[in-house]
Specification:
The chain is an alpha/beta fold. Helix content is 48%, strand content 9%. It contains 26 helices and 14 strands. The strands form three sheets. It has a seven-stranded mixed beta sheet, with helices on both faces. A four-stranded mixed beta sheet has the order 1-2-3-12. Bound molecules: pyridoxal-5'-phosphate.
Length: 658
């Protein structure tokens, strides 16, 4: 194969040029070749000679060579292609624009060193991510095959095990987000097969250009109906839905103030960041703090509150009603991410807002089709006007190919199925409760969450990885370690996701395996976040459709948030001051290390003594604040009661006057 053909085969630009060999191509080609083509740049002298020989007979090629190498003999030779070929000089000069002598290698090695340093840090902290090649067995999930060779899995030597050659091993999966097993449900897989047979594989375009099919339209109608909203819009993922829609709202609404929960998912955080809007981070699930922040800033500014329903790492649930109350008081729009709740809560599977009868108070709901619905894609549901605006302006919707028709059809089948069938939801909650009870009985550090998610605390990245390796290698149980930055340092964990397809035998095997691993690795049986009842029988089974108000106030734990550094926006001193305006001197004194905490820092470093005194100071403040929050809740309840009474009186009055 000639050099030119070789280059052409490898290089998209040259391939194009070679194939067309037309006179104008080089004028198009030259700016792109200029420094951007790795193949031409690194071509050997001989190869270069060959290229020149091929280009020279062509007038445009000759002009191109002249333009690029006008000072060299090569250019002269190229300019007179018919003349007997003068020996070309040894052309060692790269074809890209001349860089400052010596600058490029230095810059390149600095870039490489910086990347290597990041990777080294990751490895040294035991946070290097190793992907297991897990092949789920349709029809017998949670059974799966692990294709990862033990050396790769154990040593963490590779980021992927795609070069796996050893025999796959059967495993039981305990960390999958196909919460209900809908990914293998015949209704779903049949819809996918049937659509592939009829329409083929891909959509072939963006939604605007040939990528909208009846399957997409029907899916959006079905989603709107599942959420009792006017409209819905499908995106390529839940991540994209969050990121692009929040960013778009922030760009379109002048002076939008965005209020974002401190533990929001990365896709929401990125959306807020990309919006360029002014942002305020309220303490996790702390609607009192949200209210304070809103009071403290421009009351006339348009506002958007961004939060989740089920927080996927702790499994706690937002105080949606109280957040809606605050939103109403301040005229704010509400954006709730129900990614870990859709399909699982509410009589139509619309999520926790639906289960709590609050859907009408939420302006925008975002969801995924890739977890409980078992397929792929993400979406928004809301008013027709809002959805149409995002459809018309969001780059993440407009400039990307639409999901394949078969994916849309399978997702629609799943959404429709879970709109009418609740058996899976109930069964999942029963399995989750059974697992929580067994973990409590085994004295393992489980967070008995308000949801279907079962976090088991380890508290150390390396131990967490070792535990999951041991579970896989010796017990054939797959549970991925969850480390920083997915969770704060010191709160590393296993995140167990029981489904209706896990049975008692599997659950017992899991608990026995965990006890074995905990004992052999010396993992503590207690963790500050592992809150569980003394009596396992007290673990409730959640009714996914009927919500009853919890006896205790919703999860508000500023102390935890401070310690774990969840306050991304506020230096610790400010946080302490906000929490405890009248707190003892310790609060201020101990806040000194906060100097080390810059705004926007992802984590907080405190020495033990400072941390202890800060904890003591803020504990008082939190107690005071909780009392305040309860008072606010009580006042709100009283006001709500009064309002209802008034409404009843008005209704009576109205009916009497008809
Ligand atoms: C809370 C939350 N929102 C959004 C997403 C993104 O959803 P998807 O997986 O569909 O991109 C995730 C993903 O895990 C999530 O946990």
């Amino acid at each position: 194969m000639s050099s030119l053909s070789r280059v052409s085969a490898l290089c998209p630009f040259m391939r194009h040029a070679h194939a067309k060999a037309s006179s104008d191509i080089f004028s198009k080609l030259s700016p792109r070749v200029n420094g951007s083509c790795p193949f031409l740049r690194n071509m050997s002298t001989t190869a270069f000679d060959n290229v020149v020989a091929k280009l020279s007979p062509c007038p445009a090629g000759a002009a191109f060579l002249k333009q690029r190498f006008s000072t060299s003999a090569a250019a002269n030779a190229a300019a007179q292609p018919k003349a007997s070929p003068a020996p070309l000089p040894a052309v060692d000069a790269p074809m890209h624009t001349a860089a400052l002598p010596g600058a490029s290698p230095v810059a390149m090695s600095r870039a490489t060193a910086a990347l290597a340093e990041h990777m080294e840090k990751l490895r040294s902290e035991g946070r290097y991510r190793v992907f297991f090649d897990i092949e789920r067995s349709a029809g017998s999930f949670p059974a799966a095959l692990n294709h990862t060779p033990p050396t790769v899995a154990g040593a963490g030597a590779s980021s992927t095990a795609s070069d796996a050659v050893s025999e796959p091993l059967p495993v039981t999966v305990w960390c999958n987000n196909d919460y209900l097993g809908m990914g293998q449900h015949p209704v779903v897989t049949e819809a996918m097969h049937e659509t592939i047979r009829r329409s083929g594989a891909g959509a072939g375009g963006t939604r605007n250009i040939s990528g909208t099919t009846p399957h997409h339209t029907l899916l959006e109608r079905s989603l709107a109906d599942a959420h009792n909203k006017e409209a819905a819009l499908v995106f390529s993922s839940g991540y994209v839905a969050n990121d692009t829609s929040i960013a778009t709202l922030g760009k379109l609404i002048p002076n939008l103030h965005i209020y974002s929960d401190a533990l929001n998912h990365a896709s929401l955080i990125e959306g807020v960041r990309h919006s360029g809007a002014k942002k305020f981070v309220f303490r996790h699930n702390d609607y009192v703090h949200l209210d304070q922040l809103m009071r403290a800033h421009d009351p006339a500014a348009p506002k958007l509150i961004v939060f989740e329903s089920v927080y996927s790492m702790d499994g706690d649930i937002a105080p949606i009603e109280q957040i809606c109350d605050v939103a109403q008081q301040h005229g704010a729009l509400t954006f709730i991410d129900e990614v870990h709740a859709v399909g699982l809560y509410g009589d139509k599977g619309g999520g926790v807002a639906q289960q709590r009868g609050l859907e009408h108070r939420i302006d925008i709901i975002s969801g995924t089709l890739a977890k409980a619905y078992g397929v792929y894609g993400g979406y928004l549901a809301g008013s027709a006007a809002l959805v149409d605006t995002v459809r018309s302006f969001a780059p993440g919707f407009i400039f990307t190919s639409s999901i394949p028709p078969a994916v849309a059809a399978a997702a629609a089948a799943s959404v429709n199925y879970l709109k009418s069938s609740s058996a899976e939801r109930y069964s999942q909650q029963a399995r989750a409760a059974a697992l929580k009870r067994k973990l409590c009985a085994a004295n393992l550090p489980v967070i008995v969450s308000e949801s279907h998610i079962v976090p088991l605390m380890v508290g150390d990245a390396a131990l967490c990885k070792a535990a999951t390796d041991m579970l896989m290698a010796e017990h054939r149980i797959y549970a991925q370690p969850i480390n920083y930055p997915t969770v704060p340092r010191g709160t590393e964990r296993l995140r167990l996701t029981p489904s209706p397809l896990h049975d008692d035998t599997m659950t017992d095997r899991l608990v026995a395996a965990l006890l074995d691993v905990w004992r052999r690795l010396g993992i503590p049986h207690a963790h500050p976040l592992a809150v569980r009842p003394a009596d396992p029988a007290e673990v409730p089974t959640i009714d996914p459709q009927a919500y009853s108000r919890p006896a205790v106030p919703p999860h508000v734990d500023p102390l935890y948030d401070i310690v774990t550094g969840a306050y991304l926006d506020a230096p610790l001193a400010t946080v302490a001051a906000t929490l405890a305006p009248t707190a003892p001197a310790a609060a201020t004194a101990s806040a000194a290390p906060a100097a080390a905490v810059s705004a926007g820092a992802a984590e907080m470093v405190l020495d033990a003594a400072a941390l202890a005194s800060l904890k003591a100071a803020v504990t008082d403040a939190i107690a005071a604040q909780r009392t305040g929050a309860e008072a606010v809740t009580a006042a709100a309840a009283a006001a709500h009661g009064q309002q209802q009474q008034q409404q009843q009186q008005q209704q009576q009055h109205a009916s009497m006057s008809v």
